[in-house]
Fold this protein.
Amino acid sequence: MDNIFNKISFSLIVLGIAFYVFTMTFTALIPSILGLLIQIVLFLGRTFPKLHKLFAHVNVLILALGIGATYGSVLDLAGYLLNGDELARPLATVEQFTAFVLCLVGFIMAIQSFINARKN
């Protein structure tokens, strides 16, 4: 489980830094902040092993909030691809969509891991 969170958080950090280099706006660093939060919670889970399950659920909550914060980019891209609507901020939309996909994949993998742990 920690491996999933570690890879997703590292990907979010790299995503934010890469788009910051292109745009030089601080809002491009939001995925990096999200990834850093996940890393902090992972550290707390390793520091307090008795609360490891709690911290794993906190990371799932962070991923769910990331999904909720970035789902608008899916609608923007769908409008662009289906109707030809113009994107107001194309780079921001691409970054948000990528963050959405990363958070969604991490969320689904975490839920699957929780289900498998419950079965065993």
Summary: The chain has a mean pLDDT of 94. The CA atoms of residues 1 and 110 lie 7 Å apart. The chain has one domain: 2-119. The helical segments are 2-23, 30-47, 52-70, 72-83, 90-119.
